[in-house]
Amino acid sequence: MPDTLATLAADSRTEMVPAWVDGHLTPVEKLEVHQRGLRHKAVSVFVLHGTQVLLQRRALTKYHTPGFWANTCCTHPLWNEDPAACAVRRLDEELGITGLCPVHRDRVEYRADVGNGLTEHEVVDIFVAEAGPDLRLAPNPDEVAETKWIDLYDLCAEVARHPEPYTPWLRIYLAEHRDRIFASLLRA
């Protein structure tokens, strides 16, 4: 794994993430952010069709949490990038999804160990987008190994019973922020 991590890390170093260093928002290399566990900006999107949630299984080449199931899309915004613009951009880049209008649902902060001595400490803008039955997907294999639709209630039950194949942030979102993220579904 060390050789793989080093190779993947080399590819990640050019991506600069907005992170807080000594109280100031600063562009920092993505791998360094995760190695130091720096608090940083992130964006997460859940695409829904009724009570169905679109999940992605992270590509096996990801340098952390490879092969784990996550929400539809999760990423770091570019420097000075609007979170809503980032959500739209990454839906397209990761899954080939266009034409959706993600709605901001919440901003949460969490800290989680993601393996290999890496830590996610994110301040996350969470978006939800409603999709029709004809949604077309074209997953980028560098980002996504596979996708699946699952009923929100089944997902919550599955994550509670068997959390291991799910990313730490998805587990946190469902355990601690589900009511705010999925408010419209839970009222229906």
Concise summary:
By secondary structure, the chain is α+β, with helices and mostly antiparallel strands.
Features:
globular, 9 strands, disordered N terminus, alpha+beta, 7-stranded mixed β-sheet, two-stranded antiparallel ribbon, Nucleoside Triphosphate Pyrophosphohydrolase, 188 residues
Give the DSSP E fraction (strand runs of 2 or more residues).
35-45%
Count of individual helical segments: 7
The average pLDDT score comes to 92
> Largest sheet at a glance?
7 strands, mixed
| Share in helix | 25-40%
Describe the protein's topology:
Blueprint: H1 2-12, E1 16-21, E2 24-29, H2 30-36, E3 39-49, E4 52-58, E5 69-70, E6 73-75, H3 83-95, E7 103-115, E8 118-130, E9 144-151, H4 152-161, H5 168-176, H6 178-181, H7 183-187
Parallel strand pairs: 3-8
Antiparallel strand pairs: 1-2, 3-4, 3-6, 4-5, 4-9, 7-8
Explain this structure to me?
The chain has 188 residues and is of the alpha+beta class. The chain has a single domain (2-183), classed as Nucleoside Triphosphate Pyrophosphohydrolase (Alpha-Beta Complex). It is 31% helix and 37% strand. The protein has seven helices and nine strands; from the N terminus they run H-E-E-H-E-E-E-E-H-E-E-E-H-H-H-H. The chain has helices spanning 2-12, 30-36, 83-95, 152-161, 168-176, 178-181, 183-187, and strands at residues 16-21, 24-29, 39-49, 52-58, 69-70, 73-75, 103-115, 118-130, 144-151. The strands form two sheets. Strands 3, 4, 5, 6, 7, 8 and 9 form a seven-stranded mixed β-sheet that branches. A two-stranded antiparallel ribbon has the order 1-2. The longest helix is centred in the middle third of the chain and has 13 residues, at 83-95. The chain is globular and about 45 Å long. It starts with a helix and ends with a helix.
